[in-house]
Specification:
This protein is an alpha/beta fold and about 400 residues long. The chain has 13 helices and 15 strands. About 40% of the residues lie in helices and about 15% in strands.
Length: about 400
């Protein structure tokens, strides 16, 4: 039987369609009651006080840096092995980006991270790749050790009195470590609800944060609102109150709010999210079973003290190089399997080369990238499709090994 298996189509049911239809019929389609309800639902899920929804996780991260007052002369450290958004947000606010190589899977090399911190370091952005939550306990130990170097430049920075940890949790909504959910592990956590994510609003994102001593959560929420809505003192919902038309522009800010249409989709997905995670776990268990005898290294999604959100199924072709991996990607596609690569390290991209980064300085990132393949992982996958994917992969690996052996 010939299969045609997409990489990551959205899982949209009648629940989402009905919620979006109700939003369209309500007469309120921009930021409004459904967006506010989604914010509360996410905050409750993560067990934090507040959540703000935006049009992307990128906006969530950039506005957080702006609220913190990160600027030219400051340093932001993130992983070399990630998507550009983890680093570009620091560049958008004028900061210097420092990239850290990886180690032990796909997390930053924490020993190298410690060495990279200077008196100019204001924010660290760990990346929860594939939904596996980083070791935030270790990161905060490093931050505390380097506390003497820190000099706050804004009231919010002074409230922390140390480097701020902002999680790029684009993949890890629903993941946890030490029994604590993603969203309640870092100082600030940015989630993505892009079309390919576990929980989608088509486009969208959110930021949540842990309570900060001496900081009013309601004021911080309002500061995010100002930044995301042109610096306008009232959002559209507030202005609908009789006689409440007048507003002020507090600052010439940005436009990156979430709409009630997309929030409606998110509310529907939240109703289904436990089942979505359950199915993703089942898929990973099947993959692991079928690939147990294959010459591949498999990213672990569960351990003694962590549970992944099971966002990506990442494998490495043991001992193989980039050319071998690329050929395997083509052959998978020829067999109807849409695979992907996560990620091409940032120093390999033109924009980061122009900034002076060279991949030779990130050997583990390159070694990991050159033979990594991400197999389809989504809740529309059927069990027989998973078997087909793994059988095809093993067959292709065997054939290629036979060819190499004859040379």
């Amino acid at each position: 039987m010939k299969y045609n298996i997409p990489f990551s189509p959205p899982d949209i049911t009648d629940v989402e369609i009905e919620e979006v239809t109700e939003a369209l019929k309500s007469g309120w389609i921009t930021t409004g009651p459904r967006t506010k309800l989604l914010e509360k639902t996410i905050a409750d899920y993560c067990k934090v006080s507040k959540c703000v929804c935006f049009n992307s996780a990128t906006a969530a991260m950039e506005l957080t840096l702006r609220l913190l007052g990160v600027r030219q002369g400051d340093e932001v450290i993130t992983s070399a092995y990630t998507y550009t958004a983890s680093a570009s947000v620091g560049l958008h606010v004028g900061a210097t980006i420092k990239l850290c190589d990886i180690k032990d899977g796909y997390e930053m090399d924490y020993d190298k991270l410690e060495e990279m911190i200077t008196e100019n370091t204001k924010v660290i952005i760990p990346v929860d790749i594939a939904g596996v939550v980083c070791d935030y306990k270790r990161i905060f130990e490093i931050v505390e050790k380097k506390k003497r170097l820190f000099h706050g430049q804004t009231d919010l920075q002074e409230a922390f009195g140390r480097i701020v940890v902002m999680a790029d949790a684009a993949h890890s909504f629903g993941g946890e470590r030490d029994g604590i959910k993603s969203g309640n592990l870092a100082d600030f956590t940015a989630f993505s609800f892009h079309a390919v994510k576990n929980l989608t609003t088509a486009e969208g994102g959110a930021v949540v944060w842990r309570d900060i001593i001496g900081v009013d959560n309601d004021k911080l929420y309002q500061d995010y609102m100002l930044l995301s809505l042109h610096g306008q003192s009232k959002d559209a919902l507030s202005k609908t109150q009789l006689g409440a038309w007048e507003y002020d522009i507090i600052s010439p800010s940005y436009k990156c709010n979430m709409t009630d249409i997309t929030a409606a989709m998110g509310l529907a997905q939240m109703k289904r999210y436990d089942d979505i995670l359950k199915r993703r776990i089942e898929i990973i268990e099947l993959y692991n079973k079928y690939l147990s005898d294959a010459p591949v290294e498999i990213l672990s999604h569960q351990g003694e003290n962590f549970k992944s959100s099971c966002h990506l199924y990442m494998i490495r072709l043991t001992g193989k190089d980039e050319a071998y991996r690329n050929d395997m990607m083509i052959k998978l596609a020829e067999n109807g399997i849409a695979a992907n690569v996560h990620y091409k390290p940032l120093p390999m991209h033109t924009a980061y080369k122009y900034l002076g980064f060279e991949i030779k300085n990130f050997p583990v990132s390159y070694e990991t990238y050159q033979n990594e393949i991400t197999l389809p992982l989504h809740t529309l996958l059927k069990d027989d499709e998973i078997k087909y994917i793994t059988d095809t992969l093993k067959m292709l690996l065997e054939k290629k090994q036979e060819v190499l052996s004859r040379r």
